[in-house]
Amino acid sequence: MQDDTxxxxxLNDRSREVFRRVVEGYLDSGDPVGSRTLTRTMNEKVxxxxxxxxxxxxxxxxxxxxxxxxxxxVPTQLGLRLFVDGLLEVRDLxxxxxxxxxxxxxxxxxDVGGLLDRVSTALSGVTQGASLVLxxxxxAPIKHVDFVSLGNDRALVVLVFSDGxxxxxxxTPPVGQTPSAMREAANFLNALAEGRTLSELxxxxxxxxxxxxxxxxxxxxxxxxxxxxxxxNEGERGERLIVRGRSNLLSEEASEADLEVxxxxxxxxxxxxxxxxxxxxxxxxxxxxxxxxxENKLFSLSGSSLVVSPYMNADRKIVxxxxxxxxxxxxxxxxxxxxxxxxQLVGKLISDRS
Length: 354
Known about the structure:
Order of helices and strands: HHHHEEHHHEEEEHHEEHHEEEH
Shape: elongated
Strand order of the largest sheet: 9-3-11-10
Helix content: 40-55%
Number of helices: 12
Number of strands: 11
Oligomer: single chain
Number of domains: 3
């Protein structure tokens, strides 16, 4: 079997035309396409026997298949893939389709979820298929954070944003973290959260960690230089300051007080590192919502196709995607421009709202 990407390039003009007409005929009717049908539509006059031979060659290459005993052929999954990538003639977007999609942008509401729900419904109606819209994670300032343990290896972060939006994200907590540690993390974050986004909260925590580390360094320097203490795993997550012969060597109250402060700072540093890890996991959590535009079971069917296009925010960063799900016999030439246009529109609308 040849490399898939070279198969189309190595077909001669007749084979390529037979292949294209079989696929287009199948996409149009859903029925196998036979050699007699093709003899009436080919650009050059060829016999049905010649076309049957070409079809057999295309079948040998894995591009066509015979679903029944009949002489008709249908494209295989590989054939459809190569047709869409190499031979598909994408039409211009139909003006009626464009108007129906544009109507979703009519509201001035800042509710992105409502916008995407309308887009999903419009896509489904225009294409007569199931539409899929992946929504971006919310980046508004946070009003409240809550962590909920769902078991040893699963936790939920509930984010309430200042604009009233609520989002739940699943994540895997660090090993050994208890529900009480999660509550403590939430309490600490809520004291800082007002008016800050998740990424801004992370920056604040990183600054706090850096500040604690500098305070510990400053207090411990004299102890280390005098040989009373030594660093273990310095700079790493599990670092410790080990005091040598403490009961004999540290008799002055000042030294005891210094050690108590260092111990307290270490505890604080450890807590903030845990909180920083919680925040990072919350930001990476599975929070992308899926809007499905029509109820069907296409997701569970093998042989379904998805035409999907990403959309970007104002920073040209991909934040979601829109698509249409349907049988492999989709009208790709019509669906592709609809999906591409919708993705561009959604990107623009989300950028405008932010």
